[in-house]
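Support case: user asked for a sample of complex input and structure output to validate their parser. Sending the pair below.
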Amino acid sequence: MRRKGLASMAVHTASTSADPSGTTDSRVDLGPAAALSCRECGERIPLGPHFACTACFGPLEIAYELPDGDPEGLRKRIEAGPNNIWRYAELLPVPAGVADTPNLNPGFTKLVRAENLARELGVTGELHIKDDSGNPTHSFKDRVVAIAVQAARAFGFTTLSCSSTGNLAGAVGAAAARAGLRSCVFIPHDLEQGKVVMAAVYGGELVGIEGNYDDVNRFCSELIGDPIGENWGFVNVNLRPYYAEGSKTLAYEICEQLGWRLPDQLVVPIASGSQLTKIDKGLRELIALGLVEDRPYKIFGAQAEGCSPVSQAYKNGHDVVRPVRPSTIAKSLAIGNPADGPYVLDIARRTGGAVEDVNDEQVVDAIKLLARTEGIFAETAGGVTVGVTRKLIESGALDPTLTTVVLNTGDGLKTLDAVAPTSQATAIIRPNLDSFREAGLA
Amino acid sequence: MRRKGLASMAVHTASTSADPSGTTDSRVDLGPAAALSCRECGERIPLGPHFACTACFGPLEIAYELPDGDPEGLRKRIEAGPNNIWRYAELLPVPAGVADTPNLNPGFTKLVRAENLARELGVTGELHIKDDSGNPTHSFKDRVVAIAVQAARAFGFTTLSCSSTGNLAGAVGAAAARAGLRSCVFIPHDLEQGKVVMAAVYGGELVGIEGNYDDVNRFCSELIGDPIGENWGFVNVNLRPYYAEGSKTLAYEICEQLGWRLPDQLVVPIASGSQLTKIDKGLRELIALGLVEDRPYKIFGAQAEGCSPVSQAYKNGHDVVRPVRPSTIAKSLAIGNPADGPYVLDIARRTGGAVEDVNDEQVVDAIKLLARTEGIFAETAGGVTVGVTRKLIESGALDPTLTTVVLNTGDGLKTLDAVAPTSQATAIIRPNLDSFREAGLA
């Protein structure tokens, strides 16, 4: 059954997979990254700008040679490292000197102990928000793009590119500017003005495509196969295996910020599902390396009802994720055909978690709940995870007596429209005390 | 001459200064803060919610009993502290246990080595951007509000308030939410929708005043004098001496991040002028405490041409700042009658710096220059400092061979309109390679 889900993903991506032979350099320096390996058949190929297995079209991921034997030494080196994701350079596909190269240095964002929110939700255990709105362009995308930049450099790419509907465009534009790479980002031509401005301000090429996001993706695949795209690194296509690893740093940081301790439960948003699978990978690595105790944890996936193919498959007991046409205010999660959906189902079931969804009204309520309890203004994706957390507590799926970490992956300033209708002035008054008293606020 | 400038400021604030007697508790625990002292006549009064001297109407500031005799020990304690402003708790008007109280933990934002920008500006020395867009609500206001929250608690205030046109409203709303205080924020009723939403989302009271910012301020002064306002802490009025001290942390962080070294030159934006004066105060404290070498530094003030009363006074050799009616896109700096203007003039002249201004077109150019060179999307205030830096280099006032730190105090996402007209898609194409080639981007 699972293979079907993957086959549908392969249709999406494999058609443009270049033949690795001839474009690969096995001596490329990406630190502990040793090879690319297929998540389906296990085939290994040398490191290169490839994303689909030549044997079975399965997705490729990074295989590592990680440090072993001295967890205490590794922990000390991490703790002595910079206050960004490069403190974990020994566990990432990046060269050892990465922290000295010009980049945006994302990560090590706040893990906020959310006691006010816990009270409202009836959580008696520890509740934490991992708040990635503190990243340089205010979303978790800075993490993944920073890793992709290193891969782009290693493979000699001179243009950094992506297809995007928002957060990623800004993250790529900013990272390329700082790294001294050319950037050329593709978006649907009718995006909201705010997102267009954010993507354009970093000075790279910004190309609007007359079509929807699927059309943009298809065009990018065509471009990679064309000589024009020869020196182009598409962070979420031909650099995807590297890019995706950036999400592991969320797992590393959460555990380190908890005092080198696994949380009992994590609530993670699902777009393509990549982030959730890499958080699981990161947690398993920390256990294997001896940096945290080996004990169970549960991963819960969160979707918006209007784009909930993984949640629907989970609830129906399916291994296959049936694509949907998204219709939700949580646009950064609106991927109707999530490539990593089957893996997410595996992880939720293996760890004893679940996948749940909330409707747009619940998303808005959750954004406002988080804002008024903890002073964190989350993007709609954060409304999804907080809303799902509440729903999971009510259903009993999530244990409110344990340690739980909920991810906020973006910033409310980027999705103002979601809360605008219900976030307005309490009162409009004339500038005098009588008018103030009349408003009933004294 | 200087007294005149202060007199004009006193008109603005002193009319609502409560009599300190009876409302003051000298045993209030605000750490090393020992008293309030008048910046003009030196009069000392016990700590309390007061902002103007009862003897001369001069502005009050915090007088400290700072640790002495063991700079090495202090430095180590700071370095072992949390990654936020509370690492400097021993130097701030806050209780020792401040880091354990629920607050937004702002500060320790990135100091970015800006080599790309340096090349463009012809800077051969070190050029750094202190990027305060990384704060919780994405402006430096989180620093000052965090200190005001501690004062509000110490004085038993139950409502946190302010008058604001933007950044401060969000910072107060968020901080109060997290701290469990009621908030009631006053804004002009016709603010841009985005700013209203940001101020409202944290769930406090948000009151639109039918009038301009001056009307809002006058109303707040009236409210403080009325029994209604008895338990209200207005962060930028009756808590102003505490609030203002938060800006010292910018100086502390810059020096620590430079390896406990003073920069040679700093470029700081001027709104009320408070931030610049407190940065100077912070630098002098570090010297007095033996944490940095005692050597000269120069502070440069930056204004927008459409609101440049301090710059005009500087250029004309005046000690008096003549109020102006602001007209600039740099709205967060648009204070036409800056309370600390005379002190800013003193500091610029004493340190060998200067005050300069740039027009709105130069502000936009500078925002885009910083974005395309360093991947930092600054608010208009950051465009002002970067633009002024360029102008000061061209005029020879700023030495490009030395170590310079330029402040970016806010986030471009909050002032999208400034760059929107000139930050758009490079091209709109159909989703095929021919169309892409025709656009000339291949």
